[in-house]
Amino acid sequence: MDSESSDNTVWVLGNRRAGRARAGRLAPALERLLESGGFRAKFFWPSTREEMRALAAEAARCGHRKLVVVGGDGTLLDAINGIHGSGIELGIIPAGDANDVAAALGLPRDPLVAARLLFDWHTRPVDLVRAKCADAEARLYAGVGGAGLDAEAARLAGGRFRFLPGRARYLAGALQAFSGRRAFEVTLDFGGQIYRGPADMIALANAASYGGGIQIAPGARMDDGWLDVVVVEALSWPKVLWALPALCWSGGMGGLHPLRFSARQLKIQASPGVAFHGDGEPFGHAPIEIELLPGALRVVCAAVAAP
Ligand SMILES: [Mg+2]
Question: Region 154-181: what's the mean pLDDT?
């Protein structure tokens, strides 16, 4: 076992660009805080996503039992794909624009307050989602994945609307995607039970929200062993404009009246051009096989006092 894998040594993998460079600015304060909590923190600021994932895998290979990530949902996505299967536990310091997974875990919004939870290192198991697209290797995500309109919205949010803050970025992406969309015919196979119909988008939610607080599945929990499946059927401009104020102000989806299912496994058949994203990152295209992995990751969270 690596000599650095003793209990108080922890690798901290940060994405300097997360939260419009907020994560990078946090570095000195984080170093001081972790030191005051008795950690020997070793910071890494990889410049690419591949490097982030490789470093996470390296931490697991070196025998570390704890890893800390600093960034948003995209940073977390790379880390969980790097460490999967190793049993390494993850501390999350939310410093991105959206931080929907951190919100679902009930972590404090202030990164330095969230970092204090690392001192006690109280963890709990959460579910992850494995998605295998037709044209790509299987990957994991922690929060929300989706096909159709929201995959295109995520692509635009990470591209031409990247300059906008949080939820506005995703809503701008969604409106742009909606104006150029075409509804598709989808078949959802829930282990033999079939749903078939038109859809503008399908979201597969492990966490309640995505895109900086859009409440796609308000009842979703990350530790209940179920995936919340949300199907938004063919939309119209009047319907979208009616729903827009709630989407902007509270992130509520109620005005769109989506269909809702629960699943542990499902297969999505759609036309080959329909894209899929996991936590906002492109995963590939349909058909897609989805599997929920119950309790696949232990994450640091606030300890709940015994009743
Ligand atoms: Mg769940």
Answer: 80
